[in-house]
Design a protein that fits this description.
The chain has 212 residues and is an alpha+beta fold. The chain is built from four helices and eight strands; from the N terminus they run H-E-E-H-H-E-E-E-E-E-E-H.
Length: 212
């Protein structure tokens, strides 16, 4: 039993260096992000989005620098339309690059919140959704039956038909994180859902719905 516990501690300690998932401890809990390969790809994607946004902005402005910009009134609606389309696309790409392409899950044990967010290459995180830990029904591995796709570590939320994906990768890489989240969330949920002490019968306040 002690050997098994030591093995789990060793796996949990090396989890931060996994290729599939990265776990970073914080003062209030920990953050789960994809591995290094995915982070590098996300950074390149953000740089490409930023560069494309600049090009589209220049193209929108360049439409009014054409030699016939003030000569042909019939082309004016097309130039206006092109300017709007280019600026909208540039704005969308800029927002994507600013928010980031790296999805992460923040487990805040102090506030008892499981938070989904996006982080850009500069380290700025943009929160997407806050989920109370008390609303978490289960944490489990969604295994790939075919053996060709990656397994997924998911969280089931009460009242939500879909699943919230925390991380993806090989089952052996996700198992330590599954055990850690199960232990931490179970502890928090048990503290939140502790039954409140009932008042003595003699001291209860009689309500309008009490049996007569």
């Amino acid at each position: 039993m002690n050997n098994r516990a030591a093995e789990f501690d060793r796996d949990a300690a090396s989890l931060g260096q996994s290729n599939a998932v990265t776990v970073t401890d914080t003062e209030s809990g920990y953050i789960v992000r994809p591995g290094t390969t995915v982070l590098i790809r996300a950074a390149y994607g953000e740089m490409a989005a930023s560069f494309t946004a600049v090009l589209l902005g220049m193209a929108a402005y360049g439409l009014w620098l054409l030699p016939t910009a003030n000569d042909t009134e019939a082309l004016l609606p097309f130039r206006l339309g092109g300017t709007v389309v280019f600026f909208v696309m540039a704005g969308m790409l800029y927002l994507i690059a600013r928010r980031g392409l790296c999805c992460e899950v923040q487990i805040d044990l102090t506030r008892r919140v499981l938070r989904t967010a996006r982080r850009n290459r500069h380290g700025r995180a943009t929160p997407i959704r806050d989920i109370a830990i008390a609303d978490v029904e289960s944490v489990f591995l969604k295994r790939d039956k075919s053996g060709f796709l990656r397994s997924k570590l998911c969280v089931r939320i009460a009242g939500d038909r879909g699943l919230t994906e925390v991380a993806g990768g090989l089952e052996a890489e996700l198992a330590p994180l599954l055990q850690r989240m199960t232990k931490d969330l179970r502890k928090e949920i048990s503290e939140v859902r502790q039954p409140q002490r009932t008042m003595p019968t003699s001291s209860r306040v009689r309500s309008a719905f009490a049996a007569r």
